[in-house]
Amino acid sequence: MPAQATARPSVIIDDVSQVYPTRNGDYLALDRVSLTIAQGEFVSLLGPSGCGKSTLLKAVSGLTRHTSGRIEIGGHPVVKPQTDIGIVFQEPFLLEWRSVLRNVMLQAEFRKLDKAVYTEKARDLLERVGLGGFLDSLPHELSGGMRQRAAICRAMLHDPSLLLMDEPFGALDAMTRDNLNLLLQDIWLRSPKTVLFVTHGVTEAILLSDRVVVMSPRPGRIAEVITIDLPRPRTLKLRATPEFGRYAHQIHEVFRSLGVDS
Ligand SMILES: Nc1ncnc2c1ncn2[C@@H]1O[C@H](COP(=O)(O)OP(=O)(O)OP(=O)(O)O)[C@@H](O)[C@H]1O
């Protein structure tokens, strides 16, 4: 059990399948996926393109309805879009005409939260991610990494206990991605939350996760769940250690056995 996690389940995914109707007939995107995520646990979904990672994340968020099986968050079945969670997508989806601070405050406006209290929280969060000097900037004045940091602040403003992240750093260059990995770790260590994190990146998954869930290609199934027993905080240097290398090797071996070129 990772230090941050408690034995209480935060998310239960039980025998979940997703069938998409297409012009060529029904397409099985997820096939009987089961996974329980403990409160405070950081879990990555890792797999090749098209294996159903986003499909599973969307089903957990309630944005789409899974075809069969059961999903629960905090003991409640997911039957509609969840409002208490935070979601970060690959694209930051900032409103170009609103300042960075006002983009983050969108979360408070949607929820009709106290403006003064949440403006303070938004400022604090933006300060923590290094955007304290850009509160009044417009999104087009920021780099890709800065935009994504603002999107993370927006997702976290209401302090959700569950954060769903769909390849949040996938569109960024390697160095920015490294920095944001460390930033996300720092945020997670300071403010414990359950995180379900979709990625293509083996290194990123090992660096951040308590467990890495390796998915098989079409139809998406869980091929292997690997517990990452490395102390935190994890540094980028850790990637050069034999322990880290062994986890990477283990994951690549799973991909190889699935016929996936990783
Ligand atoms: N609305 C839809 N209708 C039909 N097929 C869909 C739909 N959404 C996804 N699919 C198919 O389901 C499969 C899984 O898609 P999904 O986006 O979940 O994969 P992914 O693992 O997240 O991929 P990537 O890593 O490329 O984002 C893909 O083959 C995709 O074409």
From TrEMBL:
Cited SUPFAM superfamilies: P-loop containing nucleoside triphosphate hydrolases
SMART domains according to UniProt: AAA
Keywords: ATP-binding, Nucleotide-binding, Transport
Keyword Nucleotide-binding: yes
InterPro entries: AAA+_ATPase (IPR003593), ABC_transporter-like_ATP-bd (IPR003439), ABC_transporter-like_CS (IPR017871), ABC_transporter_ATP-bind (IPR050166), P-loop_NTPase (IPR027417)
Residue ranges occupied by any ABC transporter domain in the UniProt entry: 11-242
Top-rank taxon, per record: Bacteria
GO MF annotation, one: ATP binding
CDD domains given in the database record: ABC_NrtD_SsuB_transporters
Family membership: Belongs to the ABC transporter superfamily.
Protein name listed in UniProt: ABC transporter ATP-binding protein
